[in-house]
User: What shape does this take?
Amino acid sequence: MALKMHPSLAVHVGDWLNAEIVSPAGVSVTALAEHFSVSRQALSNLLNGHAKLSADMAIRFEKAFGVKADTLLRMQTAYELAEARAHESSIKVKPFAKAA
Assistant: This one.
């Protein structure tokens, strides 16, 4: 039996990064975007929960702050799965029958 995570526990990784890493560091989005060599808009979209975390961005956070990219990407995946599970009843797919 698989364990199910309650959907309320799935947090967008950008929201988490903003609250737990970026804000406590006291760094502005503009300064961090420059440090990461990414656009301010791309970083802002991530930190405000409007964009997905890419593997490249996860590595940037790992290099800058020491938080493992693998962990961040697992958080992103858990969030996306919780979002999909919230409307899984609308996904109409029948079991696949193997040919005899």
Q: What stands out?
A: The mean pLDDT is 92. Residues 69-85 form the longest helix (17 residues). The domain at 9-83 is CATH 1.10.260.40 (434 Repressor (Amino-terminal Domain)).
